Amino acid sequence: MTRYALTIEFDGGPFMGLQRQAHGPSIQQAIEDAAFTVTGERTVMHAAGRTDAGVHGLGMRAHLDVTKPFDAFRLMEALNARLRPAPVAVLACDVVPDDWHARFSCTGRAYIYRIANRRAPLTLERGKAWQVAKPLDAQAMHRSAQALVGRHDFTTFRSVHCQSASPLKTLDRLAVRREGDMVLIEAEARSFLHHQVRSMVGCLALVGMGRWREEQVAEALAARDRQTLGLNAPPDGLYFVRATYPEDRP
Amino acid sequence: MTRYALTIEFDGGPFMGLQRQAHGPSIQQAIEDAAFTVTGERTVMHAAGRTDAGVHGLGMRAHLDVTKPFDAFRLMEALNARLRPAPVAVLACDVVPDDWHARFSCTGRAYIYRIANRRAPLTLERGKAWQVAKPLDAQAMHRSAQALVGRHDFTTFRSVHCQSASPLKTLDRLAVRREGDMVLIEAEARSFLHHQVRSMVGCLALVGMGRWREEQVAEALAARDRQTLGLNAPPDGLYFVRATYPEDRP
Fold first, then answer.
1. What's its job (chains A, B) (predicted)?
2. CA angle at residue B13 from A52 to B101, to 5 degrees?
């Protein structure tokens, strides 16, 4: 048995999410089906994170085990050939030790959220960003975001469907910046609660629009009450950027 | 009668091209139909450039005449509301003098061509870039491109369907640079022949792959023969970026 670590890019638009689901297509199913066609073996893919329907991946990490020996590069090429026309691609494939686990060995996860801050409807970016017509004050968003950095009870920013044992998480970074008409929000943590990034982005957008005072983000956090959540941002603008592992070179 | 200048963004994927066509949807038809719904008037849209099926627009300029008086901002909002769900959006709308003409007053046109230089199939960028698996030498492409800058007979880089009276054009700028795995080619001229940008990009890509010597671009130009064209790049990577007019502020 050989364990292969994959780096995966995907357009989340046509999928119900990363994880295999009974009621619709998933990234996991696309990869596992491609792997079966290539290897003749049924294998289960484990990924660094779960993503919701419509959420995209730039550098998702995952692993799968194959009994027959394959050259890692040839396996990647064969998977990509079989994944067409699904908008899922394997960017890298490496042999890793048997105890390397894409989910459990992962020590850091990074997301980016893209807000298209403009009046005109989206065309080329449709499904790839959240369009917010009202002008956003990105600096105010960044300032208010800093109240969320650190170890906190993120109950306010957690989906009712969240399966995490605890609402306590340590947010390492939450940075907001403007690039032209795009407002970009970067979030980094060891792990996130279900809907945490979208919930944080939704509240920051309210601050950016002037509908929330900057202090309201900290107040919502302190309330530890989902009812105080202002807004859950749509999945379109969310991208899983990278997963980091202890052995990664700096 | 009032003349309105529009700045238009579009995803060219679902269209047969910018210009109205008998056999399929066009950007022109989408805008004219939206204008009819808004104004009750049949009007003809004139654009700064024509684009082929699959070619995108970031800042296409166009104009249309309306008899009923409309506030320019409200006209833009109404057009955008009616354009949905077509991936066409009006980014700006201004009243201009009656002798301002989107096509004939235009003194400069700029395109960008995006090559995704990677082995993995495209996912999020599908239809939005040309995927070239073989590593490209962007510096060699830039050097060989300089032979095309200036006033030349561009017969080699001209579609057989080109309707221009003369193959003589003055290319003001052709610059190639790499940004990560994207190779970006910017082209600027007063006007271009049909397929000129895609034909130039195709030959530059051959140089980038090492299949053409750098001098072959100049030789192909000098041959003034379409048969010497190496490759016509696909429409997916081509974007009309902007049109400039004498009265534009610098």
1. Formation of pseudouridine at positions 38, 39 and 40 in the anticodon stem and loop of transfer RNAs.
2. 125
Specify the DSSP class assigned to residue A52. Answer: B
Domains along chain A with CATH numbers: 2-96 (3.30.70.580), 108-244 (3.30.70.660)
Strand pairing report for B88-96 and B2-10: antiparallel
- The 10s digit of each residue's pLDDT in A159-182 is 888 888 899 999 999 999 999 999
pLDDT top residue among A135 and B231: A135
Residue B171 and residue B148 in contact, taking contact as beta carbons nearer than 8 Å: yes
Question: What integer is the mean pLDDT of B205-227?
Answer: 96
Residues 6+ apart with CB under 8 A from B165: none
CA separation for the pair B76, B68 (Å, rounded) = 15
Write the pLDDT tens digit of every residue in A94-117. 999 999 999 999 999 999 999 999
Q: How far is A153 from chain B (nearest CA, A)?
A: 34
Tell me which residue of A86, A58, A67, A88 sits closest to A76, measured CA to CA: A88
Other beta carbons within 10 Å of A73: 12
How far is A120 from chain B, CA to nearest CA, in Å?
A: 6
Residue B213 structure tokens: 């010597």
| Chain A residues close to B122, C-beta within 8 Å | 87, 89
Q: Is B123 in Cβ contact with A87 (below 8 Å)?
A: yes
pLDDT in tens, A31-40: 999 999 999 9
pLDDT single digits (tens) B52-86: 999 999 999 999 999 999 999 999 999 999 999 99
Chain A hits for B10, CB-CB cut-off 8 Å, are 123-124
Q: Answer yes or no: are the C-beta atoms of A160 and A193 closer than 8 Å.
A: no
pLDDT over 70, % of chain B: 99
Write down the pLDDT at residue B140. Answer: 98
CB contact under 8 A, B120 and A90: yes
Structure confidence at residue B250 (pLDDT): 52
Catalytic residue among A11, A52, A172, A236: A52
For residue B69, what are its two tokens?
A: 């008086």
CA dihedral A94, A97, A100, A101 (to 10 degrees): 70
Asked if A136 and A115 count as a contact pair (C-beta separation under 8 A), the reply is yes
Rounded distance, CA A67 to CA A188, Å?
A: 35
Q: Which two tokens mark A231?
A: 């807004």
Q: What is the pLDDT of residues B126-167, one digit of tens each?
A: 999 999 999 999 999 999 999 999 999 999 999 888 888 899
ipTM: 0.92
Long-range contacts formed by B67-72: CB under 8 A, 24+ apart: B67/B1, B67/B2, B67/B39, B67/B41, B68/B39, B68/B40, B68/B41, B69/B2, B70/B2, B70/B4, B70/B38, B70/B39, B72/B4
Structure tokens at B172: 């003001």
